Amino acid sequence: MFQVKVCGIRRLEDAELALELGADAVGFVLYPRSPRYLSPIELERLLEKLSHNHSAFVAVGVVVNPKLEELRQWERFLPLGAWQIHGASDTELNAAAVVRLPVLRSLRMPWPESNPLPAACAYVLDSAEIGGTGKTFCWDTVAQLRQRTAKPLILAGGLCPENLWEALERTRPDGVDVSSGVESFPGKKDASRLKAFLSLAREWFSYASRDFAGKGSTGLWERGKGDV
After folding, report:
1. Where is the N-(5'phosphoribosyl) anthranilate isomerase (PRAI) domain (predicted)?
2. What is the reported pTM?
């Protein structure tokens, strides 16, 4: 599916820059309380323009405690490639059965050992507060979660150019997700920080792909797509 996602995008120029610099996914927040919120209509227009010059990318709709009917309705007209869901227990939302698109579920780390893992094709590991806060979590807890699932793990939560390499070395995730760490202010990306982050991410994943060669790792989408 993707290795590097830039989230919280509100402007077409930021989405285009992220893709040109090497991101393979861009995330859009459909949560009205977020300062990075885009309405479904605004997102539809942005994606229509973005698709004119770019085709090989994943557009991810980020939602919080969504209603089933909302997701089904948005899927009818938004050209998304996946959902990223925060909140919503499996009793409220059986992601494996009710929506058409692949579903990523956000886990507030550390995820308690007593809590079952929700249905998803991959997990986005974030800090205890809903995304875009710039706060990290204890990266050592990722290893514990890795023992519980073979699903792809996407590292998020306070990532920035200054801490990315250490975070990748300590957690060795399948993908990364950045938002506030490459912003000038909420909803506007900083070109120099975005370039620095994506350069480091691409360098590390290129190194990791060689390191994992022959060890059974086939990439995030291949590992996760049969689990939805």
Report:
1. 4-198
2. 0.88
